[in-house]
Design goal:
The chain is mostly helical and 258 residues long. The protein has one domain. The chain contains 8 helices and 2 strands. The chain has a two-stranded antiparallel sheet with strand order 1-2. Helix 2 packs antiparallel against helix 3 and helix 6 runs antiparallel to helix 7. The C terminus is likely disordered.
Length: 258
């Protein structure tokens, strides 16, 4: 793969958008006391970064690293920080996701996390070695990343629809994901102009665009209705709803208390 200079610039912007997405999710996860990224999507991206940083690819054995490995290592670091932050948020008293039995959650969380990691790691290893091509050393990680992004985009939308509010989410996350999916599609299709790559990147862009639109709608709805007496929107963790003011007319119509 010998991309032209403009593709390198686009790839650099894509990496910055990935970092902005991770940093935003980490901050929101910490502040809202919940997970800001679907857990299985996080596990897939963490194991993807592990497979293509710790496990290669290398330009020369034991000599120097492919620059892509450095980028993947940074993504692995950000994913690890997000994983730790997510676990801390799920175990915190402010957690609003699993409140029925916090003690059971604390007992099962390590096993669930380990099971997710093993399943995701085995899946990424299948991609890594099934699609390995010595003539195209980036082919396997490009296809596995594109497939991971398709699921992640869908998982973000489903998380928003399941919650019905914007806990653990922010329009900045949606905008970063949407823009990074566009730029990543340009880079990926320039390197691998295939039908399946075009389908995966296009689907990711469409779903991320829908997710951004839903986030903007929810943020707008929250900002408009936050000052009204009857607010059907659920508040985010740490943000209380405004108090309902007394209605003198309604109080008078009800008559004096005996």
């Amino acid at each position: 793969m010998d991309p032209s200079s403009w593709v390198l610039y686009i790839y650099f912007v894509t990496v910055l958008l990935w970092l902005a997405t991770y940093i935003s999710i980490i901050i929101v996860t910490h502040n809202d006391g919940t997970f800001g990224m679907p857990t299985f999507a996080l596990s897939l991206q963490l194991t993807w970064a592990f497979c293509y940083s710790v496990m290669g690819p290398y330009t020369l054995p034991f000599d120097s690293f492919n620059p892509q490995v450095i980028v993947n290592s940074v993504i692995l670091l950000m994913g690890s920080i997000l994983t730790i932050t997510t676990c801390r948020s799920l175990l915190s008293p402010q957690n609003q996701e699993f409140t029925s039995d916090p003690k059971l959650l604390a007992q099962m969380l390590p096993y669930a996390a380990a099971a997710l990691f093993v399943f995701s790691f085995s899946l990424q290893c299948c991609f890594k070695y099934q699609f390995w091509d010595p003539t195209q050393p980036l082919l396997n990680q490009a296809y596995s990343f594109a497939a991971t992004e398709v699921y992640a985009a869908l998982a973000f939308v489903l998380m928003l629809m399941r919650r019905g509010d914007i806990r653990g989410q922010h329009w900045i996350i949606g905008a970063s994901r949407f823009l990074s999916s566009i730029f990543n599609a340009i880079v990926s299709l320039q390197a691998f102009p295939t039908i399946i790559m075009g389908w995966m990147t296009t689907v990711t862009i469409l779903i991320d665009g829908a997710y951004l639109a839903l986030l903007i709608r929810h943020h707008t709805k929250w900002s408009i209705q936050a000052n009204t007496p009857l607010n059907p929107v659920l508040p985010m963790a740490g943000h209380a709803l405004p108090p309902i003011p007394n209605n003198p007319a309604r109080a008078g119509a009800a008559g004096p208390n005996p």
